[in-house]
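Researcher: Let's do a round of design. I'm pasting the structure tokens now; please hold your answer until I've finished.
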């Protein structure tokens, strides 16, 4: 039986979040998301509603790629994760835009150490200068389950890169404020499993208070760098979410694959999402 669609919140959680400039992540899929510096670099997708066909895919793996190359925003940077996922993995890189187009002058990683919640540093990656490559991220590592309990956590990363002069090594440290929100129980992409289509996603947070519910669509606001995802909105909008749950709603967060393209085109994405939820 189809649900009655009773609400649409357009851009309700439009929040500026520059602190994520360091982080390229898609918490449901282990794919680094290219940062879009300006609208001219945005991927232009279709304005045809029929081209966006949402399908549910697995939501048991989180993959976070942290870019260590830039240090522009004030630390600590923020990372948003879901709690209670089966597996949460982490890797590091020094490219700025994407693995295929590393920033000129990017320094390859020689070693990476991590500390979870002020514990001792553990080496998770090490290589030689001859084998280091700035275009290739480190292998995936698995975060400890204790690091994924709801609330705030501290992730510290200590890494080494080649210095400006021959045979010199530079050590730097980054600190991340990790915000863990309740786990979603549904993840949908506008493509077939294994193919994220045009990059638009729906994340469902089912109502924990009742079974007979109505869907509420929350559409992300202006996100010029494509840096925010459902976990950010769920954590920042927790008070709103609790109010919607009390009113009998399930919450679906729509995240645009290309936020800075024409609003008219993304309106087609919204229409496709509404049709999917009807």
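Researcher: That's everything. Go ahead.
Model: Designed sequence:
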């Amino acid at each position: 039986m189809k649900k009655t669609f009773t609400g649409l919140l357009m851009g309700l959680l439009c929040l500026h979040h520059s602190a994520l400039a360091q982080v390229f992540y898609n918490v449901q899929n282990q794919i680094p998301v290219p940062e879009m510096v300006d609208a001219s670099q945005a991927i232009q997708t279709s304005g045809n509603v029929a081209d966006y066909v949402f399908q549910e895919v697995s939501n048991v793996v989180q993959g976070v790629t942290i870019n260590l190359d830039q240090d522009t925003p004030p630390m600590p940077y923020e990372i948003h994760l879901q709690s209670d996922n089966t597996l949460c993995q982490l890797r590091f890189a020094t490219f700025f835009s994407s693995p295929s187009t590393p920033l000129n002058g990017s320094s390859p990683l020689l070693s990476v150490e991590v500390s979870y919640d002020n514990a001792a540093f553990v080496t998770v990656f090490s290589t030689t200068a001859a084998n280091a490559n700035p275009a290739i991220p480190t292998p995936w590592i698995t975060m400890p389950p204790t690091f994924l309990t709801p609330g705030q956590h501290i992730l510290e990363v200590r890494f080494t890169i080649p210095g400006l002069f021959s045979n010199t090594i530079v050590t730097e440290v980054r600190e991340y404020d990790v915000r863990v929100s309740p786990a979603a129980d549904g993840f949908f992409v506008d493509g077939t499993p294994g193919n994220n289509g045009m990059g638009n996603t729906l994340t469902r947070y089912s109502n924990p208070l009742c079974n007979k519910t109505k869907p509420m669509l929350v559409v992300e606001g202006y996100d010029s760098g494509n840096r925010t995802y459902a976990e950010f909105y769920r954590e920042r909008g927790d008070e709103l979410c609790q109010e919607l749950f009390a009113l009998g709603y399930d919450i679906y967060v729509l995240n645009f694959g290309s936020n800075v393209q024409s609003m008219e085109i993304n309106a087609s994405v919204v229409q496709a999402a509404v049709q999917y939820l009807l």
